[in-house]
Fold this protein.
Amino acid sequence: MKFTIGWLKEHLDTKKKDSELIEKLTDVGLEVESFENLSSGLDSFKVAKIINTEQHPNADRLRICDVDIGLDNTVKVVCGAPNAKKDLLTIYAGPGSIIPKNNMKLTVSKIRGVTSYGMLCSESELNLSDESKGITELKISKYSDKIGKNFFNSSSEKVVDLSITPNRPDCLGVRGIARDLAAAGVGKLKKISKNNIKKNGSQKIKVSIKKEKNQGCTVFGSCLIEGVTNQESPRWLKEKIVSLGQKPISAIVDITNYVMLDLNRPLHAYDADKINREIIVRNSIKGETFNALDNKEYKLDDDMCVISDQSGVLGLGGIIGGTRSGTEIKTKNILLESAYFIPRSIRKTSKLLNVDTDAKFRFERGVDPQSIELGLSKAAELISEICGGKISNFDIQKTDKYDKNKIKFNLSLFEKITGFKINDNEIIKILTDLGFEVSKKKLELDLKIPTWRPDITEPIDIVEEIVRIKGYENIETLEPEKTKIKDTLNREQKLFHFLQRSVASKGYFETITWSFTDSKINKFFKENLKEVKIVNPISSDLDVLRNSIFTNLTFYLKKNLDRGFKDISLFEIGPIFKDSKPGEQLTVIGAIKSGKVSRLNWNEKDRTVDIFDVKKDVIQTLVEAGYDKQSFFVREKSPSYYHPGKSGSIYLDKDEIDPVAYFGEIHPNIINKLDIKTESLVGFEIYMDYLKENKIKLKDLKPNFEYSDYQKSERDFAFVVDKNFKAQDLIEIISSIDKNLIRSIKIFDIYEGENIPHDKKSIALNVTIQSSEKTLEETDLEKINKLIISTVETKSGAKIRS
Amino acid sequence: MSDIKKIKDEYLNKLDSDLNIESVNKIKTELFGKNGQISNFFKSLGSLPNDERKKFASDLNSIKEELLDKINSKLQEIETKAINSKLENEKVDVTLPEREINQGKIHPVSQVIDEISSIFSEIGFSVEEGPDVENEHNNFTALNTPDNHPARDMHDTFYLDNNKGLLLRTHTSPVQVRTMLNGKPPFKIIAPGRTYRSDSDQTHSPMFHQVEGLHIDKDINMGHLKGCLNYFIKSFFEVDKIKMRFRPSHFPFTEPSAEVDIGYELKDGKIVIGEGDRWLEILGCGMVHPNVLKNVKVNPDKYQGYAFGIGLDRLGMLKYGINDLRAFFETDYRWLNHFGFDPLDVPSNYRGLSR
């Protein structure tokens, strides 16, 4: 909402400095977006007189003008306007000026060999009108003593731009802003002067509001003004319109706009001669069309509030008028509309048709339903003043009364909510200044709410009014209480933060990527999850919610590879989506690793990253999170986006149904399709939701400190087994032979090749044997040795390698 | 006696010369071997008369000790020499690079969430979370923002169905709704998380982070709100003094509502939070609207309190001097490395928030 300080002062009687007013605006909740000196651009335009003209030596149509701009010497300006003649009073723009129409900055320049110091301006160049044929001609009677003075006398005018919150439609008019400031004590709200327009005869065009379900219009006020001479607006009005960055059109349109900006009272002017007999306010019928003033044709749905005549739709009530009944410069008779439209109806229609206008913006938020006559009379007065014409009586059709709403306000509520006290009289004064009718009954106020405040419906709204006008700085700052109701983090949250740092500590960079992604990449990783489309994506390559963390990780990995990085470790912890309902999401850690280990290293040989790098990271992360490695179980099963032979899944226990993690190489087909260029790409995923709570807590585990000081023995074995026999099974077989004696098993070699059948492999392991009761004798060791060999051979079909 | 003295002097002399281990061992055998000279004297002790024996034995023992000491120290000397000369050849270039360790990093947003959780933990708040996909009711209607309300236009919403029933939450406020519906007052929570708006330009990202705060009890008023935020901002920016300004504003779910500005100044083009005469808007807050309380089955006549919502990414940008919001989510390895945090830097109350 833009307005000038001068305009504000038409409503506010104040001696305060501009800076104080600006500060106060912010203090009462009208946020100042900008406060700019309007003159900065416009005070370089001077009233000037052409003293002499001579023909340009090199151009037939150009003249060289000697121009008096109020200085000792005249300036020479090259001008092409046919009306540039001796003694003409016009507007001069010096070098450095910025022409409002095209934002061009003037410089001293040579035009066909003759230097021109500035420019003489047409009205169109100054956005004063569309007149562009010649330079501005100023009336001698008015301007002859003003040569050298600023043409725009608004040189001290400052424009304020407020960001008005949706609850304050009243402040979409200058008067509403003035009222707030007056209540806050920086001035007095001026009374609206009683106008004394003469109204003659009845409004001859019949108006009716059709009784329909969902009728969006409840009051339709109108008056007919006959015999007007529409014309350009007078300067004061043009300047007002221009100062807000809008373009003057014609007196009638400018006046309706002016009243809207002044009082937040949108009006519409019809060319009365173009109305076919009568005005009918009704609901639209599906398929009706009309051409609107924004030069678009709108096709209407059912139940949109339209203003129509016997020929059809004239306009969308409260949103936009139509071209068929629009006023023109030659318009003689006008019908002025001042109506009330229900916000909900306005919002629904404008959303469906995707139209946004000043009127719609205001009606959607709520225009004062009792401002209908005020708006009509203010506009009618101005129109008859400027354009002449005969004003009819006002015709008001209404289906609703809009009495003031009442609230009972318990005075103690103020302190209860804000924590500080102000006295009752001050409360009453603030509310009265804001336009409330107040009567006090003991501890309660009976309030009548001004009709321009549709946002106020209950006592808490009154508290807000009082505290914002009194000032938020009066609220005390109370020391925060430290009482705790619950633990800060629950188990899942603790786990989340722990895993996050645990993975990062293994050399991965944490990233955060968008929860949505490109469906073309997502399809590689989506498995059997449902694709969740975004109806209105920000771009077509961010069109679905991600089904996997890998979708974005691979995308960004590629970007980093393209930046020249080779050995990259990235992870993200966050949501993936199974379906589109709230809660159908899982929290997953996804990590990927590319390139080599020890690349360009002076003392270690480099190698590509492989599945056992990520297996180490994922297992260690789970161990650090408190899970027992001894019970982990690894299966070959893994999602299709992993390499089928080089990937696996981890279960917390052999009997668990859901794996808690996957690890492995990313499927080479996907790497190809995504055009990722790296020596190797591996990754892992941990599904937080499947990480069950540990039954045994650390504090329960710690007291069980058991150890053995008896001598340990180590024995090495090599078994020849089938090639696809799993090491995990071999370890399981051996360790279950005697859990008390067999302390650890380490695989130290895997061998395939010479001396071993081609469908077999040799697994060499080292077994540590130790008793917690005695030092084992050679015979005991021999016994367990034999038992290991025989058990393995029977259970796995392996042969001990001799 | 003179014999053994002679032997002693002779061998001490020998041992002073430059010898190798073998020659020292040979000397040792010559003296103390089975037929060593000293050993033989010990064997002869029995044949001596009683009065002489004692004296001779004592002399012999002291000579033995002296010689053995000399031999051992000679051996040690040779050993040390040998090791030293070996080490001479084992010298490495200690300025060569160490073995590689891959340093991981925590994203600044995660770090900021941990910092904030730590600060609010100190004053009794617990952390709640909610889903990223919300229904229209929790995101808007329950928060006193009905469909026909223009305040909905303040949020550019991503929808997941054509009826606009399912959406990506536009703020963390639906967590308020979920928390209050699932529990009984008092409530004292913060809710950090991802939020989404279909808005993308230099200063807007379609995804960003917020932290929601909610404190509902019997007598929580705007003074508590001010106190809580004052404490939070001071702690977060790790400054003793903070200039804060509460400006009236409007949010459908709070009333009265406020926007909070903090003071700052520019020093060498950098933002310094705390003092100065410039204002920076950092959060929105207010007293929870009675309609919201009614919608979540909390009696507004008995309970009241405040809520606030803060943009987490922006807080992080201010604290750590990050200029570009979009970079947060672009996974540039260089950026992550530069702005990321060591995983061991866990913010906590007792060790301080940051190094």
Chain A touches chain B through 96 residues (CB under 8 Å).
